[in-house]
Specification:
Length: 145
Protein backbone atom coordinates (compact mmCIF):
# COMPACT_ATOMS: atom_id res chain seq x y z
CA UNK A 1 0.00 0.00 0.00
CA UNK A 2 1.05 3.55 -0.58
CA UNK A 3 0.22 6.54 1.60
CA UNK A 4 -0.30 9.96 0.01
CA UNK A 5 -0.85 13.40 1.54
CA UNK A 6 -1.88 16.73 0.07
CA UNK A 7 -1.35 20.17 1.57
CA UNK A 8 -2.21 23.71 0.52
CA UNK A 9 -0.45 26.56 2.28
CA UNK A 10 1.82 29.57 2.05
CA UNK A 11 5.54 29.28 1.42
CA UNK A 12 7.31 30.32 4.63
CA UNK A 13 10.66 31.22 3.10
CA UNK A 14 12.58 31.00 -0.16
CA UNK A 15 13.09 27.33 -1.19
CA UNK A 16 16.62 26.00 -0.69
CA UNK A 17 18.61 23.70 -2.96
CA UNK A 18 20.52 21.03 -1.02
CA UNK A 19 23.13 18.53 -2.18
CA UNK A 20 24.24 15.36 -0.43
CA UNK A 21 27.86 14.18 -0.33
CA UNK A 22 26.86 11.60 -2.93
CA UNK A 23 25.73 14.32 -5.33
CA UNK A 24 21.96 13.93 -4.98
CA UNK A 25 20.29 17.32 -5.29
CA UNK A 26 16.89 18.20 -3.85
CA UNK A 27 14.87 21.20 -2.66
CA UNK A 28 13.52 21.84 0.83
CA UNK A 29 10.83 24.32 1.82
CA UNK A 30 8.39 25.05 4.65
CA UNK A 31 4.67 25.39 4.06
CA UNK A 32 2.31 27.10 6.53
CA UNK A 33 -1.17 25.56 6.48
CA UNK A 34 -3.90 27.35 8.41
CA UNK A 35 -7.17 25.90 9.61
CA UNK A 36 -10.05 27.73 11.31
CA UNK A 37 -10.89 26.04 14.65
CA UNK A 38 -13.92 28.06 15.74
CA UNK A 39 -14.51 31.37 17.48
CA UNK A 40 -12.79 30.40 20.74
CA UNK A 41 -9.67 28.82 19.24
CA UNK A 42 -9.39 30.92 16.06
CA UNK A 43 -6.89 29.95 13.37
CA UNK A 44 -4.36 27.20 13.93
CA UNK A 45 -1.22 27.09 11.76
CA UNK A 46 0.64 23.85 11.10
CA UNK A 47 4.07 23.96 9.45
CA UNK A 48 4.82 21.22 6.95
CA UNK A 49 8.40 20.51 5.87
CA UNK A 50 8.54 19.59 2.18
CA UNK A 51 11.38 17.81 0.38
CA UNK A 52 11.31 17.64 -3.43
CA UNK A 53 13.45 15.11 -5.33
CA UNK A 54 11.90 15.45 -8.81
CA UNK A 55 14.43 17.38 -10.95
CA UNK A 56 11.84 19.18 -13.09
CA UNK A 57 9.78 20.30 -10.09
CA UNK A 58 12.94 21.35 -8.22
CA UNK A 59 13.94 23.65 -11.07
CA UNK A 60 10.39 25.04 -11.36
CA UNK A 61 10.11 25.80 -7.63
CA UNK A 62 13.59 27.36 -7.45
CA UNK A 63 12.87 29.55 -10.50
CA UNK A 64 9.33 30.70 -9.67
CA UNK A 65 8.30 30.15 -6.03
CA UNK A 66 8.55 33.14 -3.69
CA UNK A 67 7.93 33.55 0.02
CA UNK A 68 4.23 34.01 0.77
CA UNK A 69 2.90 32.30 -2.36
CA UNK A 70 0.16 29.70 -2.03
CA UNK A 71 1.39 26.21 -3.00
CA UNK A 72 -0.21 22.81 -3.49
CA UNK A 73 1.98 19.85 -2.51
CA UNK A 74 1.25 16.13 -2.91
CA UNK A 75 3.56 13.36 -1.81
CA UNK A 76 4.43 10.78 0.79
CA UNK A 77 3.75 11.93 4.36
CA UNK A 78 5.81 11.27 7.46
CA UNK A 79 5.49 12.41 11.05
CA UNK A 80 7.91 12.41 13.95
CA UNK A 81 7.45 13.01 17.64
CA UNK A 82 10.16 14.69 19.69
CA UNK A 83 10.71 16.58 22.92
CA UNK A 84 10.92 20.38 22.80
CA UNK A 85 13.56 22.44 24.59
CA UNK A 86 11.12 23.01 27.43
CA UNK A 87 10.47 19.27 27.75
CA UNK A 88 7.02 19.37 26.19
CA UNK A 89 6.05 16.84 23.53
CA UNK A 90 6.26 18.16 19.95
CA UNK A 91 5.56 16.73 16.51
CA UNK A 92 6.68 17.54 12.99
CA UNK A 93 4.95 16.74 9.74
CA UNK A 94 6.71 16.38 6.40
CA UNK A 95 5.82 15.53 2.82
CA UNK A 96 8.29 14.07 0.33
CA UNK A 97 7.76 14.60 -3.39
CA UNK A 98 9.63 11.70 -4.97
CA UNK A 99 11.39 11.52 -8.31
CA UNK A 100 8.43 9.86 -10.03
CA UNK A 101 5.48 10.49 -7.69
CA UNK A 102 3.87 13.56 -6.20
CA UNK A 103 3.28 17.09 -7.36
CA UNK A 104 4.01 20.73 -6.52
CA UNK A 105 2.03 23.65 -7.98
CA UNK A 106 2.02 27.39 -7.40
CA UNK A 107 -1.60 28.39 -6.81
CA UNK A 108 -1.28 32.16 -6.36
CA UNK A 109 1.04 35.10 -6.14
CA UNK A 110 2.26 36.53 -2.85
CA UNK A 111 -0.42 38.55 -1.01
CA UNK A 112 -3.08 37.68 -3.59
CA UNK A 113 -6.42 38.44 -1.99
CA UNK A 114 -4.77 40.08 1.04
CA UNK A 115 -4.00 43.71 1.78
CA UNK A 116 -0.25 44.15 2.02
CA UNK A 117 1.85 47.14 3.09
CA UNK A 118 1.53 48.59 -0.38
CA UNK A 119 -2.25 48.11 -0.68
CA UNK A 120 -2.72 51.64 -2.03
CA UNK A 121 -0.10 51.24 -4.77
CA UNK A 122 -0.65 49.85 -8.26
CA UNK A 123 -2.02 46.28 -8.43
CA UNK A 124 0.63 43.59 -8.71
CA UNK A 125 0.93 41.39 -11.73
CA UNK A 126 1.78 37.78 -11.18
CA UNK A 127 4.53 36.37 -13.39
CA UNK A 128 3.22 33.10 -14.77
CA UNK A 129 5.65 30.24 -15.28
CA UNK A 130 5.94 29.25 -18.94
CA UNK A 131 5.69 25.61 -19.93
CA UNK A 132 8.86 25.54 -21.98
CA UNK A 133 9.68 23.26 -24.91
CA UNK A 134 12.51 21.86 -22.77
CA UNK A 135 10.04 20.81 -20.06
CA UNK A 136 7.72 19.29 -22.71
CA UNK A 137 10.66 17.29 -24.08
CA UNK A 138 11.62 16.04 -20.61
CA UNK A 139 8.04 15.03 -19.82
CA UNK A 140 7.75 13.19 -23.14
CA UNK A 141 10.84 11.12 -22.19
CA UNK A 142 9.00 9.74 -19.13
CA UNK A 143 7.33 6.39 -19.96
CA UNK A 144 3.55 6.58 -19.76
CA UNK A 145 3.40 10.39 -19.76
Amino acid sequence: MHLKAQAIGRLGQKPKKVSTKGGTEFVVLSLATTQYRGKERGNETTWVDVTIFNDIRCKFILDYAKKGQMLFVEGEPSARAYEGKDGSPKASLSITVGRFEGDVKILSGKDEGEAGDDAESEPRTTKKAPLSDELDDELNDIPGW
